[in-house]
């Protein structure tokens, strides 16, 4: 900045512009008072005068104020946090319970009915086997899987979340968490950008613009990835219901699943705080700045408009993104599964290569590869994992041949495939942890770069969660094996 | 939406859900038949309208009501951090509407306040609509007064009148309009109430049919007052066509880096030329 200033001064002649600036400088010293303060004083004085002339407040005793009573409860020291977790758990419980049946219906339509029909059409018009493979068994099945796994939970979760937002709950949640963020040396408004991240991390990163100080804004940007996003909720919900929901009797399965998902989300908030604390004491040293947060009035949500915006704007856009990324991924998966080098397909070579590293982390080679394929979009992790698992275990009776994304008739079939692939409780747990702690998707990485304009901070925001994921999965795997094996 | 809401004594605003009568088609006052929502299609436009206001006062709702877009609205301050743009046609004129981030003031340095301030100053909107929360008028006026320091073409949209009514708060819109020197429109944007009146007033201010005499701050410190008049005299000499030299002087005295840079780079000169052109165009249309 200083250098630029000097250059400019040397090139401009002593014009009238300079004289304006220099006289502003001298006058500023002459005034001697704080211009800023006196300006603000006169704004406040005028605003007060004008408002008092125009506004008539209700006379007499204020009637029972419902908003205030509700606020003291929602933001209370004792009930605030439990209430927040209960609300979140309730939302997930509704999502888990409500999504099962439509998921199975969509799968049976897209996978069991349309897929064989498409295949027979391709055979009928004499398409070569590899083209049928790439398009029908690769692209179509990948898209079908994304839709049936993701659409129902999203169509339930987003409207519920938007209703909470419209009602005015989000800033109250932020208010509750403010003191935690302040103690971590971060800005209290980070709780708002973090909440936005629960929808989409790229949106969360953009939302950090409400934070004034660059130091605190960087902390908020770097830690936003610890908020589970749209692309990751379905993974969490599916894996939790397979590996945790089944631990309990069927009547309680929904609660346990919701509890496990809330647990992982809470862990994400915990990491957000810990990493913020660490950054504000090392790379981004400084004190937390104060701010005022306005609690908006409670407003009855507009049900139909909410449904419309959350279904059309959010669900459809996220689903479309998933489909766009899943289609080429499906083609790639089919190709690497059907092109052989020596006796094994390319995919099998990869899986064998990454397996030792995966096992070390309590995961497996398939998951590692799925996360590499899913860098553009987290949404396709589960379809990729399922497909690769079928391939590597050479399950018979499901699907038809290598690299075919198989056909599953029952909701529990996913669990059967995963167990056949050697998955244990540890694999499920660590997949949930790794889904929370890994690099942001490529869209988010690009957004971070656009917002910070710095390769260094972008790299840091990418590397920190990945290293944490590797370390934590490794530790959990060691402890699990010590205790249970 | 069957019942009519009484906003101020004697003034009643028609419920907007009823379809406009065909006979009203060429009446510019009470119908939305005159409004064509253009969404994001705004290739050519006659006027630029900026939407400013405190966070969570319903700017995005007003924006959606005018453009037919469905920008996501949320009940929390800071929902809109980037600029959203849309268009509409009213009274045979094409308007471009720019939704600015919600801010409490235009003085400090956060990104959202800078985006809003820069657009009102450098973007030179033909009209700035300031959406204010009728239930928290005094605090909202802080921003209104700052906007009126920068521009002299503004309309105040007194939004959330339904909530004010629920809390038994009465606002005298005529008194407020007189004190502020710009039109004040009572509205409940969520119910689309007051939107036709808002359109009419925006149109009138944009076309020059309504001449604003905006409230300017009275400064108590005589030394500051003197410094401002000396400096604004100098600015006027260099940029004779600028409408808000006193405000520029005040910002320079406050050491506002962005304004200092604008003087230095001559951006202020461009502004001055542009505002002259706008004024000339308005003269010819009259």
Structure characterization notes:
The complex is a heterodimer of chains A (485) and B (286). Chain A is an all-alpha fold and 485 residues long. Chain A has one domain. Chain A contains 20 helices and 3 strands. Chain A is globular and about 85 Å long. In chain A, 46% of the residues are buried. The N terminus of chain A is likely disordered. Chain B has 2 domains: 203 residues, 3-Layer(aba) Sandwich (Rossmann fold), CATH 3.40.50; 64 residues, no CATH class. The longest helix of chain B has 19 residues. In chain B, α7 crosses α8. In chain B, the strands form 2 sheets. Chain B has a 7-stranded mixed β-sheet with strand order 3-5-6-4-7-8-10, with helices on both faces. Helices cover 41% and strands 18% of the residues of chain B. In chain B, β1 and β2 form a beta hairpin. The N terminus of chain B is likely disordered. By secondary structure, chain B is an alpha/beta fold. Chains A and B meet through α2, α3, β1, α6 and α7 of A and α3, β9, α5, α7 and α8 of B. β1 of chain A pairs antiparallel with β9 of chain B.
Number of strands of chain B: 10
Helix run count of chain A:
20
Going across the biggest sheet of chain B, name each strand in turn.
3-5-6-4-7-8-10
Unreliable residue stretches of chain B:
1-31, 75-79
Compute the CA-based radius of gyration of chain B: 19 Å
| Average pLDDT over all residues of chain B | 77
The fraction of residues in strands of chain B falls at 15-25%
The tally of helices of chain B reads 10
Helix/strand/pairing category of chain B: alpha/beta
Number of domains of chain B: 2
Q: How many beta strands in the DSSP annotation of chain A?
A: 3
**Pair with the most extensive interface?**
A-B, 64 and 66 residues
Tell me, briefly, the overall form of chain B. Answer: globular
Estimate nothing, just give the exact number of structural domains of chain A.
1
Secondary-structure class of chain A:
mainly alpha
Q: Can you tell me the overall shape of chain A?
A: globular
Report the biggest beta sheet of chain A as strand number plus sense, adding barrel if it closes: 2 strands, antiparallel
Q: What do we call the CATH homologous superfamily of the largest domain in chain B?
A: P-loop containing nucleotide triphosphate hydrolases
Specify the CATH architecture of the largest domain in chain B. 3-Layer(aba) Sandwich
**The CATH topology of the largest domain in chain B, please?**
Rossmann fold
Cα-to-Cα separation, first versus last residue of chain B = 39 Å
């Amino acid at each position: 900045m200083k250098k630029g200033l000097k250059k400019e001064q040397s090139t401009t002649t002593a014009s009238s512009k300079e004289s304006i600036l220099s006289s502003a400088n001298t006058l500023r010293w002459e005034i001697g008072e704080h211009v800023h303060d006196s300006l603000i004083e006169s704004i406040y004085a005028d605003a007060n005068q004008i408002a008092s002339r125009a506004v008539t407040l209700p006379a007499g005793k204020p009637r029972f104020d419902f908003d205030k009573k509700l606020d003291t409860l929602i933001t209370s020291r004792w009930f605030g946090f439990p209430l927040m977790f209960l609300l979140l758990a309730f939302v997930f419980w509704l999502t888990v319970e409500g999504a099962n049946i439509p998921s199975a219906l969509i799968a049976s339509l897209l996978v069991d009915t349309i897929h064989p029909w498409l295949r027979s059409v391709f055979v009928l018009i004499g398409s070569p086997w590899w083209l049928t493979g790439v398009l029908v068994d690769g692209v179509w099945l990948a898209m079908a899987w994304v839709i049936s796994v993701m659409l129902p939970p999203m169509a339930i979760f987003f409207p519920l979340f938007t209703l909470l937002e419209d009602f005015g709950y989000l800033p109250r949640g932020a208010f509750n968490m403010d003191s935690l963020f302040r103690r971590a040396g971060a800005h209290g408004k980070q709780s708002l950008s973090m909440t936005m991240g629960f929808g989409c991390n790229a949106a969360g990163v953009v939302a950090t613009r409400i934070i004034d100080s660059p130091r605190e804004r960087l902390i908020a940007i770097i830690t936003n990835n610890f908020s589970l996003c749209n692309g990751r909720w379905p993974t969490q919900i599916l894996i939790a219901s397979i590996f945790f929901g089944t631990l309990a009797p069927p009547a309680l399965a929904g609660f346990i699943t919701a509890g496990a998902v809330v647990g992982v989300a809470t862990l994400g908030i915990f990491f957000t705080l810990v990493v913020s604390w660490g950054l504000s004491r090392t790379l981004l040293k400084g004190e937390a700045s104060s701010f005022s947060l306005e609690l908006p009035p409670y407003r009855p949500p507009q049900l139909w408009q909410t449904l419309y915006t959350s279904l059309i704007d959010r669900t459809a856009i996220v689903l479309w993104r998933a489909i766009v990324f899943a289609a080429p991924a499906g083609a790639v998966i089919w190709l690497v599964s059907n092109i052989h080098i020596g006796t094994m397909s390319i995919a099998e070579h990869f899986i064998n290569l990454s397996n030792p590293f995966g096992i070390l982390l309590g995961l497996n080679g398939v998951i590692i590869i799925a996360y590499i394929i899913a860098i553009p979009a987290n949404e396709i992790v589960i379809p990729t994992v399922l497909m690769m698992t079928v391939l590597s275990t050479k399950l018979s009776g499901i699907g038809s041949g290598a690299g075919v994304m198989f056909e599953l008739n029952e909701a529990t079939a996913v669990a059967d495939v995963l167990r056949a692939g050697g998955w244990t409780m540890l694999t499920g747990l660590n997949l949930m942890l790794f889904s929370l702690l890994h690099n942001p998707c490529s869209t988010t990485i690009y957004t971070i770069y656009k917002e910070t304009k710095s390769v260094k901070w972008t790299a840091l925001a990418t590397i920190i969660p990945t290293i944490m994921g590797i370390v934590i999965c490794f530790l959990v795997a060691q402890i699990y094996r010590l205790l249970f094996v | 939406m069957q019942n009519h809401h009484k906003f101020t004594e004697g003034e009643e605003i028609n419920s907007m859900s009823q379809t406009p009568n065909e006979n009203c088609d060429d009446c510019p006052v009470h119908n939305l038949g005159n409004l064509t929502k253009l969404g994001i299609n705004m290739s050519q436009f006659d006027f630029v309208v900026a939407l400013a206001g405190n966070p969570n006062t319903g700017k995005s709702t007003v924006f959606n009501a005018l453009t037919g877009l469905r920008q996501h609205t949320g009940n929390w301050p800071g929902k809109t951090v980037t600029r959203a743009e849309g268009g509409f046609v009213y009274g045979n004129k094409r308007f471009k509407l720019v939704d600015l981030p919600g801010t409490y003031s235009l003085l400090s340095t956060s990104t959202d306040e800078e985006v809003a301030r820069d657009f009102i100053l450098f973007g030179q909107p033909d009209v700035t609509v300031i959406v204010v929360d009728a239930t928290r008028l005094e605090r909202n006026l802080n921003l209104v007064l700052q906007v009126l320091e920068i521009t002299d073409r503004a309309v105040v949209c007194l939004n959330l009148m339904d909530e004010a009514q629920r809390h038994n708060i009465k606002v005298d819109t005529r008194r407020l309009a007189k004190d502020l020197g710009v039109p004040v429109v009572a509205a409940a944007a969520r119910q689309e109430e007051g939107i036709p009146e808002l359109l009419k007033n925006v149109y009138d201010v944009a076309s020059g049919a309504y001449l604003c005499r905006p409230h300017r701050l009275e400064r108590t410190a005589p030394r500051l007052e003197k410094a401002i008049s000396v400096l604004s005299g100098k600015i006027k000499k260099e940029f004779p066509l600028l409408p808000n030299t006193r405000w520029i002087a005040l910002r320079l005295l406050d050491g506002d880096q962005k304004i200092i840079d604008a003087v230095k780079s001559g951006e202020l000169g461009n502004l001055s030329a542009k505002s002259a052109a706008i004024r000339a165009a308005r003269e010819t249309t009259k």
